[in-house]
Fold this sequence. Notes:
The complex is a heterodimer of chains A (257) and B (157). Chain A has 257 residues and is α+β, with helices and mostly antiparallel strands.
Amino acid sequence: MFRTVLLSQILLTLFCQAFCFEPTEEDLKCFNDYEKEIKCSLSTDRLKSCSGYKLNVTQNVSNILKNYTCIFNRSHHSDKCECGIKVFQEFVSKENFTTTLLEGSNVLLSKTSKTEDFIKPKTPVLSVQKTENGNFYVTWDDQYKLGGSHFLEDLKINLTFGIKGELEKISKTVPNTVGSFEIVGKNLQPNTNYVLTATMSTGYNDHSISSDQSTPAEFTTCKSIYICLKVIIVTVLIVLDNPYKFIHVLQPHPQMK
Amino acid sequence: MMKTILLLAVAVFVSSTPVTTSVKPHTDKTPARHTDKALLGELVDELIVAIKDFPKVLPKEKLIFLKDLQMNGLDHKEREVLFCQVEQELKTKVSGLSDAIFDHFRTDKKLMRNLNMYNKYHVKTCKLTDEKQDKIPLHDFLKNLLASVRNAYSQVN
């Protein structure tokens, strides 16, 4: 009898080690965007289905606990289980969040973190425009609509660009408040496709967590800087040659009676 | 057979990992200087908004007077004590007032939460001041406080 019980316990433990999901802290990753959202993802090779797993999130606001719950679902773009909440109260540094992972009513994992330690800024959206002198004027949207000015002032954007398909990249980090960056065309290879991406980070956690990478923005350099300038020079000469004709073309025509 | 089972049992016992259910005690990952800068910077933002939103002219029944606390010419330690006293003044005399003009000073709003978090990590005991101290209107109190917080922020920045 004792032998049977012991053997079945051993088999059960061995089975569970192989097939049961016992997450560690590394399996559950949570980030807040310091505006309205907390997103968590659960990743493990042994997790066959997301169903049955849920997350309780408790926000400590002036010693009053605000509770939120979300249910994990399989992400469309990765094989992780994801779960997200929108907080009612804005984020404040040093306030605690407790995240508790449950399978049914069984607590698998619980962790308390300070707000700033898990801020992951929103992914920026890039825009690139070619300028008259063959340079590239880069602007971005930090995607924050509600954020306070101090948080936005403390964001930095890391711009990375290089020739499309090649590994070598150039990176520049500038404060978010600068708002734009100019890539000098003459420093790049002519008639070449370039790709630009960006991430953002916050000084609130000493830039320790970067946002997801932006959608790449492509731009193509002129065949040569002289061709870029030639277009400008020709246009200027046309205007100077017959300025009256040019002005007449621009003026609205009088209406016919 | 019995020996084999016992050996297996020991091997399984040694190798099995316990389920993590206890709350892991948190350790601050971000240096204090960065969070002080964040708290004070946001306090400046919130005070600017609160001052802008607060009516310049109020009916007599809505006039609020707070202690005229010494807010300038302070060293770092004195300023920490001041911020604690400011929080007490606002909490006891303004936070609980029902009118919407005092909404910025509710304890669950950013202004008071930032002040509360700053004090939680800086001040051990809050020295209460004498109630007989001179009083000034809330609007003036906030303007003096803003200057003091800006000063504190510039020293952390």
